[in-house]
Amino acid sequence: xxxxxxxxxxxxxxxxxxxxxxxxxxxxxxxxxxxxxxxxxxxxxxxxxxxxxxxxxxxxxxxxxxxxxxxxxxxxxxxxxxxxxxxxxxxxxxxxxxxxxxxxxxxxxxxxxxxxxxxxxxxxxxxxxxxxxxxxxxxxxxxxxxxxxxxxxxxxxxxxxxxxxxxxxxxxxxxxx
Length: 177
Hints:
Elements: E1 3-12, H1 17-28, E2 31-40, E3 43-52, H2 58-66, E4 75-80, E5 95-102, H3 107-117, E6 121-132, E7 135-145, H4 151-164, E8 167-173
Antiparallel strand pairs: 1-3, 1-4, 2-3, 5-7, 5-8, 6-7
Helix pairs in contact: 3-4
């Protein structure tokens, strides 16, 4: 019987990190499901839901990943994954939204509340700070599923909220599968 595992790694960002991790998981016979990677400051975070073949234990996978030289000093965790391997319709991205401007405390909380109000599901969110001419610039990108009957009102409210926070805002409809 296959085992479902959640592989979580946080360590120094380095070129070749994904190749080393995914390559080792492939060599072990793991079948990768949903996988994410992000640079967080000078660190990086890798997360993957995997199916492990019969006989391969969570401990063996964790120990093997920790032995990779590129992961020296990284925090590596391989834990049971008790949720489903596939996601439902509200995890399909219908819109991509980008907001940019000066950092504003509570920005992510306020935008998230708008999505909640309209029954929208944030599928992916990425925020980063980067230097700009007037100081630090804050960029937030959100991939979201919005119920079709609420799309227009939700996008208008997001744009209005962004404007209140002195942010630019643009949204695009995601390409259909």
